[in-house]
Amino acid sequence: MLGLTLSLVALWLLGSSPVAVAVILALLGLCTMGMASSLQHRVVSLAGPGAALAQSLPASAANVGVATGAAVGGLAISGFGAPAAVAVGALIGVVAIPITMATGRLRPVLDRVAEPPSGARRE
């Protein structure tokens, strides 16, 4: 998520240079495509017995993100021009970074089941 956000910030800052845009878009693609398989693995590993159903969640979330991003980006472009869409995308990325970091605290279902409740006596 950090690479994606930094790529968008760089694109906003250097968007007037065709060479810089080409390099940044390549980095943006690498960052984005690198997230897909790790996101899928993380969702399935956290789902426990519901892994088969959970496999559809990343694709559904991506579709919601594409639709929402297109709507918000379109509003930004119509109101402030093309660079605003990149700035809004970077802003969304900045908001998503702490959320992404917080999900690192999630543990798979089986790990949570194996842990006794706090304060429980062990015999």
TrEMBL record:
SUPFAM superfamilies: MFS general substrate transporter (SSF103473). InterPro entries: MFS_trans_sf. Keywords: Membrane, Transmembrane, Transmembrane helix. The chain crosses the membrane at residues 80-102. This is MFS transporter. It comes from Promicromonospora soli.
